[in-house]
Amino acid sequence: MKTRVVMVSGPAGSGKTSLVKAISGMLGRFAFMAADEKSERALSGLCEATDHFPMRTPCARPRQFSIRLERLLDSHDVPLVVSEPPGLQGETCAPILNPLFVFEKEKYNLGRLILTLTPEDVGDLRKNDVASQKNRLLIDEADVLVVTNSDAVEDERRPGIEKAVRSFNDACEIIFFSAADGEGAEDVARAVLEGGYSRPLVN
User: What is the Rg, in whole angstroms, of the alpha carbon atoms belonging to the chain?
Assistant: First the structure.
């Protein structure tokens, strides 16, 4: 049986680890590959196995991801691996997932690419600074966008956030999520467990 692999991407501080921690009890048996030791510790005891990426060289990220994934599965037989991207957190993830999608179809079942952004990140999308440009690229490749810290987002602001996202990706699912009150947790868990990687050639 193929292992399901789901990547949760997003810039530093956007809530990737908090999201996985909040839904960990809904995912069954899974392993977590973290961007760093701090994120790995946050999931300790909440899943069957954890690992973290030791290197941060951008050019090594696709190979590094594949190697760490293989090593983890050699030692732990789990049906699901949830992973943060290795290296720089604001970079696109399609170049990491595409080789698995093309060459490892018999081994892995790639789930939807999930992106986390804060409401502030989405509000800044029209700016011309580097962070906003990167966030636009991240949205373009995402299958699911999770707007974190949704407990701080009033209902009247939400259509504007959705419209901003739709101007860069009209196909992704948008979920408002809060680790504080649990809003959207079941929808995020469903997004992890169901559906496939649908935008493999974006990069």
Answer: 16
Per DSSP, helices labelled H in the chain are: 16-23, 37-42, 61-75, 94-103, 119-123, 130-141, 158-166, 185-193
Q: What's the pTM value of the predicted model, to 2 decimals?
A: 0.94
Q: Check if the beta carbon of residue 10 is closer than 8 Å to that of residue 117.
A: yes
| Rounded Cα distance, 2 and 170, in Å | 30
144-147 vs 31-34, strand pairing mode: unpaired
Q: What whole-number distance in Å separates Cα of residue 173 and Cα of residue 152? A: 20
Write out pLDDT tens, residues 147-198: 999 999 999 999 999 999 999 999 999 999 999 999 999 999 999 999 999 8
Class of domain 3-193: alpha beta
What distance in Å separates the CA atoms of residue 57 and residue 190, rounded to the nearest whole number?
32
Residue given tokens 């990491």 in the structure block? 96
Buried b (16+ CB within 10 A) or exposed e, 128-138: eeeeeebbebb
Phi-psi region of 60 (alpha: psi -120 to 50; beta: other; left: phi over 0): alpha
How many angstroms separate the CA atoms of 92 and 96, rounded? 8
What separation in angstroms does the CA of 115 have from each of 2, 75, 84, 121?
A: 23, 28, 10, 12
Start-to-end Cα distance in the chain:
29
Whether the CB-CB separation of 93 and 142 falls below 8 Å is answered with no
